[in-house]
Specification:
By secondary structure, this protein is an all-alpha fold. It has four helices and no strands.
């Protein structure tokens, strides 16, 4: 599965808990938004993460 910032942004907008996690990552790790989104992808989507199926569904629509 390939990372897409556009799809990740849609996924974050659909799931409040991902939005909150993104804010937490930005603050705790001091990352800028784009890097924080990529980190969130690797923790919540990639390698059978809890949001992988939702991400794949959005990917098919995109």
């Amino acid at each position: 599965m390939k990372y897409s910032k556009t799809i990740m942004t849609k996924l974050i907008n659909e799931h409040r808990e991902l939005h909150d996690e993104l804010k937490k990552i930005k603050v705790e790790m001091g990352l800028e938004k784009n890097l924080a989104i990529k980190a969130l992808y690797h923790s919540a989507v990639a390698d059978n993460g809890p949001y992988m199926k939702d991400y794949q569904a959005l990917d098919r629509l995109h």
